[in-house]
Specification:
The longest helix has 37 residues, at 15-51. Helices cover 45% and strands 8% of the residues. The protein has 565 residues and is an alpha/beta fold. The chain is extended. The protein starts with 6 loop residues before the first helix and ends in a 58-residue tail after the last helix.
Amino acid sequence: MQKIYSPEELNSFSRETLVAVILSMQDQLVQLNTNMERLIEQIASANHQRYGRSSEKLDVIAGQLELELIFNEAEALTETLYVVEPAEEDVIQVTRRKKKGKREADLKDLPVEVIPHTLPEEKLQEIFGPDGWKQLPDEIYKRVRGQPAVYTVEEHHVAVYAGRDNQTIVKADRPKELLRNSILTPSLAASIMNAKYVNGLPLYRISQEFLRNDIHISRQVMANWMIQCADRYLGILYDRLHKEMYQFHVLQADETPVMVTKDGRPVNSKSYMWIYRTGKSYTDTPIILYEYQRTRKADHPEEFLKDFKGIVVCDGYSAYRKLDRENPDIVFAGCWSHARRRFAEALKALPKAAQKNAKETVAYEAVSRIAAIYHLDNQLADLKPDDRRKQRQINLKPLVEAFFAWVKEIQSSNRLPKGKTLEGINYCINQEEALKVFLNDGEVPLDNNVTEGALRSFCLHKHAWKLIDSIDGAKSSAIIYSITETAKANNLNPFRYLDHVLTVLKDHQDIRITALSRNCFHGQISCRKSAGASQKQPICKHGRRKRRSKNEPVLMVYRVPYDTD
């Protein structure tokens, strides 16, 4: 702590000593002002994250600041700029009339129940006289009627036959079951999965809704159903999609924390849900896969991507950088949205009094320069990958090179205090190589936003159910989220798709029955038996005896990838 001098002590100081004291106080004031500005920025940023809009669009940065994106600004960045002529419809605004037939198109796939409305013949005779009328085409009005879910008990009667001598008994074929001695059907399982993994309802709310319909199914029973269905059936499709994902040249990856209570670690320990998806440019058959892991180590993406050769778009997390250095078959591309984010946060954190001078800040110029890169790349969206790469080399590369020359000049000047803007400058310089990868490949997007969008459902849902009870539950959730999110990305109805998949796999479950030779329940390869283990109770490499529920058959069912074509 700085010494506090009394008036008598100050009067006794020489001129040189007083000058030294004043200079020391000036340094303290500068440091205090710097710390105060950082605290104000942090508080403003925290308030915006809690109460403000989450959008990172330019028109909402810093409280609706008007960030002018005009070509004069872009010309200051580089001597060559690709200028796109505006389309005629962008210049001449035409008022569009409401499209006819929209209602009919919206309702065309729904079943129709015709409800006639007629007048009695006595009324018609009163108006027109006997035989004094003819009927014209009806006026048609359409309404949509809804009703809660309807539940039906399937009661299967299996015929039994016996010979006249009562020596031979024959039964009709018993229908195959989803789970042995369980009331669960594919449609019921699909409805629970749709409610939890698509609509984000916790299991206890689903159980309450069942009770309102006089159906008594506890959340514990439903949790067990989800785990078993994911492991026995949907895991097959998951493995197939994982294999198919390797056929793509560009993948995108991200991760988010999740709480798992019974994972053998102290309470409140963070686990992670990793997500991988095919690149943004692959619009025909997108694949989205979740993977649960207890940690955020680089070993997890390394194992998941062990057979992949190509480009992975991700943020600047060090695990990806480590894998980039160690795996020559994988190139990691950076995310320009993450590069822009810190500058946007700096603008949002500006006090109201300083917002009028926001255009003079380094953060504003950084956002404007990145916006120019986005603007030009958006003009190339409809081009083929090779043509897009050529245009990026011609038109975007000068902008990108000018941007990095500028951020390096800003960093070397040492004129920025600690804060979001300086963090953004340092991030861009550290990620320079990764941020330039998109210039050399037309299939690589500028950012990882589509992956974060695929994570949005999971992130929203975890605020409702807060945590996952067990590792088995987390792994099954990863599998089911993968199937539902992939279905949504391919414009499929998740409920109908799950119902179809479970029905098909149920009818082919004999393909998956094997004797202690495939994947164990914990997802590990080469399940083995110890020397003294019972043939009926396999043991995996975790050293734990595989749990068998009361409804489990003696012969265990293991997850075996197979061709469903």
